[in-house]
Amino acid sequence: MKPIIEVENLTKKYNGGVTAVKEISFQVEQGEIFGFLGPNGAGKSTTIMMLNTLLSPTSGRARVAGFDVVEKPDQVRMSLGYISQDLAIDDILTGRENLYLQAGFYHLSRKKASERSKELLDLVALTERADDQVETYSGGMRKRLDIAAGLIHRPKVLFLDEPTLGLDIQTRHQIWDYINYLRKEMNMTFFLTTHYMDEADALCNRIAIIDKGIIKVIDSPASLKNQVRGEVVCIQFSETSEDKIADALPIISSLSIVENVKQRDSGCMAVVRDGDTAIPEIFRVIHSKGLKINSVTLKKPSLDEVYMAFTGKTLGNERESNGNTHRTVRT
What we know:
Blueprint: E1 5-13, E2 19-28, E3 33-37, H1 44-51, E4 59-64, E5 67-68, H2 73-79, E6 80-83, H3 95-105, H4 110-123, H5 139-150, E7 157-161, H6 169-186, E8 189-193, H7 197-203, E9 206-211, E10 214-219, H8 221-227, E11 231-237, H9 242-253, E12 258-264, E13 267-272, H10 275-288, E14 293-299, H11 303-311, E15 326-330
Parallel strand pairs: 3-8, 3-9, 6-7, 7-8
Antiparallel strand pairs: 1-2, 1-4, 4-5, 9-10, 11-13, 11-14, 12-13, 14-15
Helix pairs in contact: 3-4, 3-5
């Protein structure tokens, strides 16, 4: 079976010479939840807009559901759904009316619109509130209705841009359950962007990390975590002098027991072979630079560390703990 999304050497250059996406290539299989992660300005939105036919590539090719995004844009649009982090539902209408409106955009008959609206309202647990105005809904209910609206035409591929941003943890888990249900029961494919690493870890079959328009790595969450060997030492300094912290990094990196080190906020993160052996040595070289340590955390590698290793950055939005065991020492 052919992949449902095929991208070959896709490039986008904007006026002024800025290259947002540089010859990226990847495939997404039918029924897969594919995560697309990267810092702001990495090329995520540009890639998604090209796949959604909202931007024309400068070069390269992309196909969605077998249709070329340049040559067959109408067929591509009928094959996909797109749910952005900004809600696309009307507060004045009821939940049911919102779904009927969306069905009209795809020229569904009134009978089909009614059948699918009932099915989707049941799916997202909004049947009892279907005829209430959306302005009376909670934030989680609105997001669930937004997802239902994106499914009204039964797309083969659903693009989800930060689908749970700002939602409480219970509602986030409900959304995860809906996504997994649709993948299993309808063999739907999802292209997901998120700032929550626990979300990517829990949902995605594979993850691509893009930075500066280039895909750095594509693999399963488990395989990505295995690529970061050893343990992770996270150090928080008492002071936040960026110059002093920057001066300490090369010294930490020179230690034979340290595999990699990155600056992180007012501290640093070091990947080491053995944490218990590395921590005393790291303490020694840090104190030699006149820095005082506030806390040290030793843990197993997570997707946060994978992301940091490939981009040198952290995702800016608030993230919940991914459940990895760790211990913290305060000094």
